[in-house]
Amino acid sequence: RKNVSHKSMAREINEPRIMLLSGGIEFSRGQTQRMASLETIMEQENKFMEILVNRIIKLKPDILFVGRSVSRKAQELLLKANVVLFQHVKSSLMSKISRQTGATILASTDYVL
């Protein structure tokens, strides 16, 4: 039994729209940014998360299952959009959910719009 990522997220939803994402929702710094200032990197990460989460929200899911971790900023944005988030979902459970709901498992956030 999985718990939602934030205690104020909904515990029960009637006829939910489900989104399955096998990857994570995180900002990965490239090799070229080793000597960048911390403020610049934080701004880039925040902007990237806002863009990515907005792309997810446009699909209007009620529940989002993610196979890996989700950044704190993304969790906050999803909470504001009333999207229930489950992270670190095993691939076997994700496959069962996919079979039961007919939902497609997206390999990464690159496939969102």
> N- to C-terminal separation?
30 Å
Radius of gyration (CA) equals: 15 Å
Side by side, the strands of the main sheet go: 3-2-1-4
Number of helices: 3
Secondary-structure element series: EHEHEHE
Q: Which spans have pLDDT < 50 for at least 5 consecutive residues? A: none
Number of strands: 4
Oligomeric status:
single chain
Structural class: alpha/beta
Strand content: 5-15%
**What helical percentage do the residues reach?**
25-40%
Biggest sheet overview: 4 strands, parallel
Quote the average pLDDT.
84
Shape: globular
Characterise this structure.
This protein has 113 residues and is α/β, with parallel strands linked by helices. Helix content is 36%, strand content 12%. The chain is built from three helices and four strands. The chain has a four-stranded parallel sheet with strand order 3-2-1-4. It is globular, with a radius of gyration of 15 Å.
Please summarize what this structure is.
The chain is 36% helix and 12% strand. With 113 residues, the protein is α/β, with parallel strands linked by helices.
List keywords for this structure.
single chain, 113 residues, alpha/beta, four-stranded parallel beta sheet, globular
Describe the secondary structure blueprint for this structure.
Blueprint: E1 18-21, H1 38-58, E2 63-66, H2 72-80, E3 84-86, H3 91-101, E4 105-106
Parallel strand pairs: 1-2, 1-4, 2-3
